[in-house]
Design a protein that fits this description.
Largest sheet: 6 strands, antiparallel
Number of strands: 33
Shape: elongated
Distance between the termini: 118 Å
Strand order of the largest sheet: 2-1-6-5-4-3
Radius of gyration: 53 Å
Number of helices: 30
């Protein structure tokens, strides 16, 4: 059908809308209907609309060209401010103007007469015309009634006969909760019950003689519904409809009105009665339901979650755009309604990584009809969906179900990343050297890392759930900790020192840095503290204070500086050695007055860095006296801290070693030749190692690139072969490194020094990879030996690593101990591994001998151990029992030649 276009001249438009008003964009009245001019005689063209009219309904803050949008397509009630005339109609844009079409709102013929209006002044389609007919008929009826008094008198007797019946009906109607109204054929009410009075707010006298239209018509009345009541009424036919009914106070209520004509024995319509029920609550509830349904429908359509609603036969009732997008469905949601989903699982299984399980799980869910929440589905394109299922029951009867699908790819990948980070930081926390302790608001321990267990002497099982203050502190320090916990609740962090008692009843001093601990909502749940055992530092601090008292008498030079490194005090030995007296020295930095052009720059840098970090320093340096003479000193020093851990001062002791340095120069010249030979041998070994390892690294890198570039194209077996090649390359690399280490053992220049074997073993335990099910313990504190630290490290690390790597028990245990002899120490490393057969025990120390299938084994570890021991003229042997374990014994002399 083509687009219709209507054209009217003014005369034709007046016939349809005689009460129109045409308003310009600047709100000037530029046109009026012929009847509008009649009822608003004072209204002038080109006058302002707002000066003559006001909008009663709907409410507007101001009437202007822009606000008309709020009035379009709804009923508007307008007051003519110069009269009491009320107009009902609607506004509409007409090109660049505003058109109001409607009609006056009259409730009596007197109002019509006062405006000198006749039927021709109204549009034929105006429903008010019907009301005018009714009112006109009312006048005619009044005339007819006067003429019919005689007839009524004759009928009086018949009415009397029916009075008793009417009284009975009246009794029933009066007690009815619904409003009951009786009218004459002209529509005038002659009786109503109390319920009707209660509904409308009118008194009985105010109602009698009025028509239901006069009483009930209001601004919210729907004229179309009104006609549905008026037409059957005058035909004497029954009616039933829902209609708005006005109240006396200007409000209105919704009614369900049912009417029925009362006829005489001849079938003549003589009376009409109607039952009026107040259904406002019902209409309001129904309206809210419709609004809720509309909101729910809009919400579902715009959700970021895919929605699929199926009935009990798996026919689609509802879906949304997101569902179609997630599953790449080239259709609108409305086009899916009614489609059968019984085969949809089979059709869409190709989206998922485990298609058969996807189909099987759908069948299980539909069979069980139980709620399923947040199942994660993995798709072949790398995405992840979260699926939920909700069965729908109505009065116990299964009516269908709801599927929801959400793309949670980012969430899953974030959680995976978060878990990796969590594992990483958990590992860091568990292995840091600082003790970490967490307590809740009741001071109960909830977590402790291994470092804290080490410094306290307790195991984690000993600590969890215990009160921290009662576990380590005396009464005085418990009070301090309680005050600190209160600060944590207030969000305050700080550091402090406490005296504690370990499980072994040792008195120690800890430096604690505490901070509040919060949950995900930001609420405090306890506190977390970093613990550092500073007992040794405190003892050293006290010792240094004591030493400063005797520094004045020391034969070596003693220097004390402030925190900025400026000299505050020197002893007499410094004056004698340097030539600078106290007054010349104070306020100067030692390096500025003592160091010269030949002073080693690396040594100067070392001293500067150690002092900056507040760390101890120990070195030899070339100084210059006040007269410019060179002299060598061995300088030792460190920072002095207060109880808060702040640097107070620095001190240094300088020993004049000029004579010794001259002797060392001579000795260095004697060993230069031997050093050069050893260096050439070492360089040769390094070159051979590099020439062998370089192609291995290239092979390893090449295989890695091949795997990365062809990961999806290669079969699982091909990838396995490549992994085997990588493993063999890595083993060859370990083997070359082992050969190099073996070759260097007796080539490296030996640095003899006092070595704490206990510290060596502790460092090895912290350095090597020890499985969680294996424990390495030092049974007794190991002694100190004179020797080379590198070689001792190689010796014990190889044996302990072998013991850890080859344990085959659920709970592995390696014990390190020693026995002191007259001139030697016998160390033992005992494990509960698989043991070594008797026939293999002598072969264990041969190069390239390995009696295990482990990829890590090079067959050189024990050869290196044996070579180190032979270097120190020691001895190694073992005792072993299959399936029980092995103990290695190492005998080393106390004093090395």
């Amino acid at each position: 059908m083509g687009k219709l276009e209507f054209k009217f001249d003014e005369n034709s438009f007046n016939k349809l809308y005689p009460f129109y008003i045409l308003i310009s964009k600047d709100l000037k009245i530029i046109g009026l209907g012929k009847s509008m001019k009649k009822v608003c005689k004072d209204l002038k063209l080109n006058s302002n609309f707002n000066d003559n009219f006001s909008i009663r309904r709907p409410h507007l803050d101001a009437f202007n060209f822009e606000s008309v949008n709020e009035l379009i397509d709804q009923l508007s009630v307008v007051d003519y401010t110069k009269d009491r005339l009320v107009l009902r109609g609607q506004f509409q844009f007409l090109q660049d103007a505003i058109l109001f079409v409607g009609s006056p709102w009259f409730v009596s013929m007197d109002q019509i007469r006062s405006k000198n209006l006749v039927f021709n002044d109204f549009s034929i389609s105006d429903p008010l015309l019907d009301l005018l007919h009714i009112l006109n008929n009312q006048e005619l009826t009044t005339k007819e009634l006067n003429e019919s008094l005689v007839t009524i008198s004759k009928q009086k007797n018949k009415i009397k006969e029916r009075q008793e019946e009417l009284n009975r009906l009246s009794l029933v109607a009066s007690t009815n909760q619904s409003g009951v109204v009786f009218t004459k054929p002209d529509g005038k009410i002659f009786w109503c019950n109390d319920a009707y009075l209660k509904h409308t707010g009118y008194s009985f006298d105010e109602i009698i003689g009025k028509t239901p239209i006069e009483l009930g018509r209001c601004e919210a009345t729907d004229n179309a519904q009104l006609h549905k009541m008026i037409q059957p009424f005058f035909k004497g036919e029954p009616f039933s409809l829902q209609l708005v009914h006005g109240r006396k106070d200007g409000s209105y209520f919704w009614t369900r009105t049912r009417g029925q004509a009362i006829k005489d024995e001849n079938g003549k319509f003589i009376e009409y009665f109607a039952i009026v029920d107040d259904i406002s609550t019902e209409v309001e509830a129904r309206t809210k339901i419709v609004e809720s349904e509309n909101r729910l429908s809009t919400l579902i359509k715009n959700l970021e979650t895919g929605i699929l609603l199926e009935d009990q036969s798996r026919k689609i009732l509802l879906s949304n755009e997101k569902f179609c997008t997630l599953f790449s469905i080239d259709a609108k949601p409305d086009q899916l309604i009614g489609q059968d989903c019984n085969k949809s699982a089979e059709e869409s299984k190709g989206f998922f990584n485990e298609p058969d399980n996807f189909v099987k799980r759908i069948a299980e869910i539909l069979t069980e009809k139980k709620i399923v929440q947040n199942e994660i589905l993995s798709l072949v394109d790398g995405r992840y969906f979260e699926r939920s299922y909700i069965p729908i029951y109505e009065e116990g009867t299964y009516k269908g179900h709801l599927w929801t699908y959400t793309d949670v790819t980012l969430k899953v990948r974030y959680n995976e990343s978060l878990e990796k980070e969590k594992q990483k930081y958990s590992s860091i926390i568990a292995n840091i050297n600082l003790g970490l302790l967490e307590v809740n608001l009741k001071d109960e321990i909830t977590f402790a890392n291994q470092a804290f267990c080490d410094i306290s002497g307790y195991t984690l099982e000993d600590l969890i759930g215990e009160k921290a203050s009662g576990k380590f502190l005396d009464k005085e320090n418990r009070a301090l900790l309680e005050n600190k916990n209160k600060l944590r609740e207030e969000g305050v962090s700080d550091s402090y020192e406490v005296k504690v008692t370990t499980k072994q009843r040792e008195k120690r001093i800890w430096l604690i840095s505490g901070a509040p601990n919060y949950d995900l909502k930001g609420e405090p749940v306890g506190s977390i503290g970093i613990h550092l055992d500073i007992t040794e530092q405190k003892e050293q601090e006290e010792e240094l204070i004591l030493l400063s008292l005797i520094a004045e008498k020391n034969i070596n030079a003693v220097i004390i500086c402030n925190r900025n490194g400026e000299i505050e005090w020197v002893n007499k030995s410094f004056v004698n050695m340097s030539g600078y007296d106290k007054e010349e020295s104070i306020g100067k930095k030692p390096g500025h007055i003592l160091q010269g052009k030949n002073t080693n720059q690396e040594t100067k840098k070392y001293l500067k860095e150690q002092i900056r970090k507040g760390l101890p320093f120990n070195c030899e340096i070339l100084n210059y006296s006040k007269k410019g003479q060179e002299y060598w000193v061995s300088v030792q020093g460190q920072a002095l801290y207060n109880k808060k851990g702040e640097i107070l001062k620095y001190f240094a002791i300088e020993e004049n070693i000029t004579q010794r340095k001259l002797l060392e120069i001579q000795r260095e010249e004697l060993v230069t030749s031997l050093a050069r030979i050893n260096k050439e041998l070492e360089d040769y070994a390094q070159i051979v190692s590099h020439d062998l390892k370089s192609p291995l690294r290239s092979i390893h890198s090449l295989i890695s690139w091949i795997k990365e570039d062809n990961d999806k194209e290669f079969s699982e077996q091909t990838l396995q072969y490549l992994s085997m090649i990588e493993s063999k390359v890595e083993k060859m690399d370990h083997l070359i490194q082992g050969i190099l280490t073996y070759a260097k053992i007796d080539k490296v220049d030996e640095v003899k020094e006092a070595i704490s074997i206990n510290d060596i073993v502790k460092n090895i335990i912290e350095m090597i990879d020890i499985p969680e099910n294996t424990q390495v313990i030092i049974k007794n504190k190991l002694p100190t030996l004179e020797g080379d630290k590198f070689r001792m490290q190689q010796l014990f690390q190889n044996i302990i690593s072998n013991a850890v790597n080859y344990i085959d028990k659920e709970q592995g245990l390696v014990e390190v101990d020693f026995v002191e002899k007259e001139n030697s120490y016998v160390f033992s490393i005992k494990d509960n591994g698989p043991g070594i057969a008797l026939e293999n025990q002598e072969k264990m120390f041969n190069t390239f001998q390995s009696f295990t299938n482990s990829e890590k084994s090079t067959g050189l570890g024990l050869s290196i151990v044996k070579k180190v021991i032979e270097t120190y003229k020691g001895k190694i042997w073992l005792e072993s029992e299959l399936k029980v374990g092995t103990t290695f014994f190492i005998k080393l002399k106390k004093q090395q030649q």
